[in-house]
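> tool_call: predict_assembly(chains=two)
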Amino acid sequence: MDDTTPRLIRQSLPQGRCALLQGRWAAAALAEPRTWASLQRELQGATAGPQAVQCWDLRQLSWLDHTGAQLLWNSWGRRWPMQMEALPAQRAMLERVAAYTVPPPPPAHLTAGQIFLGLGGLVLRLLDHGRGLLRLVGQLLLDTLRLLRHPRQGPWRDFSGHLYHIGATALPITALVGFLIGVVLAYLMSQQLRLFGADPFIVNILGISLIRELGPVLAAILIAGRSGSTITAQIGVMRVTEELDAMRVLGIARGFRLVLPRVMAMALAMPLLSVWTTLAAMLGGMLASDLVMGVTPAYFVSTLPDAVKASNLTLATAKSAVFGVFIALVGCHYGLRVKPNTESLGQGTTASVVTSITVVILVDALFAVVFKDVGI
Amino acid sequence: MNAMSPDTPMVEIEKLSSVFRTGGRESVVHRDLDLRINAGELVSIVGGSGSGKTVLLRQMLGLERPHRGHVTVMGRPAEHLGEPGAASRVGMLFQHGALFSAFSVLDNIAFPLRELGTLPDELVRDVALVKLQMVGLEPSQAHKMPANLSGGMIKRVALARALVMDPPLLLLDEPTAGLDPDSADALCELLRSLHRELGLTVVMVTHDLDTLFALSTRVAVLADHKVIVSGAPREVMAFDHPFVREFFLGERGRRAAALLPEPPIAV
């Protein structure tokens, strides 16, 4: 125990039992676990029971802060002790603590009415989302018409920039993921096929699943996570920094300048990325089947056109374009709804990614049902 | 409560040089800067934009390391400030408050105490409530979230959080920036009374001449990469330097100085 340890020493003086406080009665020193435990015991003994003291002497304290003062005040039962010796600054601090110690305000509890209202608010918010998306789609149609009528006024520079950021910079990651998925799929399938001696059918399985489903969906999910979040964050930051308001004041249509180029870039980049991902996955699958089952790449390539009809490719490409439009729309929608604070920006970005991935899978299921007779 | 003896410097900056490299180009912010701040002072640091006022403040907090030289805060190197318990040595009021947006007002103020892990919840809550009222807020506002507070209230809550462990040294970065005149005056009044009642040493960076004249016992002017003059507001105004002339003797400066009490504030 050194000099600064907060402690309580009992003394018997002519006027009665006295508590002499020493050391640093400051938050950091008090919070030392061992000190706290022993001090707690001493304080309890000094304030209650047969050994309770009559007078308190604070003058030898090397430091007293508001936490220490509060501790004393609470130990005294929020009353002044019968006798107290203290320096003027210490007395002032205790008086401040005494004046400001109030019962804590009750925390806000949820009542049944509030829960009911909260539920209603949820429904209204959902409706509001729907209305916002509808308005966005309507504005997009109008903007597309405007673009068709005056193609020279189009935001082409923005378009090419977004095309580069959404498309070109995503090539390495989509290729890597596609390749690995192809390898995994081929390995898993080879086990099952060998059981039936149906090794050559690996071409059919890989071809249909990768070209028709996995390629477009994988690419769309990756791009939803990568570029959908970027779109929301970009537009959301523009809201936080009041750039959106500035655009409006300057008379620049944000639908035409912000939403349209992103949707167009996404609609063009997504099918290309999907083909690219599919190619990488096929390559991975082809190499793996050669290694595991001895299905040569030459056989693979020559059989592929018979196994997978060309209409699958058309379907996949069309599907990807739709995915792209939806990812961009969802990203813009959440970006425009961001409120001017940073917390809302984070929430908006997360919600945007989750929603766009869900939408991609939903749309994919719709396509699967509607086009079940095409290409199989 | 007995503070450190008045002749020990709270902050001592010796031969400080700060150089920033951006894109291969070096820009010198401070060169051989010396500054000494004694206990109980209320020092304002002024200077043109880019003169390194905020950098100096961040170096006192140990958030940035100087290129050369020493920054000693309360007898210890500034780099050691980030260690546990730092809140009991130095309090900092950031320009935009830097409140934790996930916590309520009360939890924001109580956070440094709660992190100590030993003190019981009721004690921590009481201490936070006392601090909340010391900065002039009502206990009924304890459960509000930072997003629902006005600019002046954010500054007050941030001040309460900075002071929760009663640090003897308080640093302020543009305390009145972004506040309307009424809230700015109220905050100045609050800072002055806290400085007096708690015996704090305060260092602040400000552009606001009203705040500067209302509060400071000493003004340090940063220009030409160093402290060109430091002294009572009137002494500094009399100093002959282009920046000082422009800053203090322009239209705004004269208007603010007219309110300066006569004789000048005792140091």
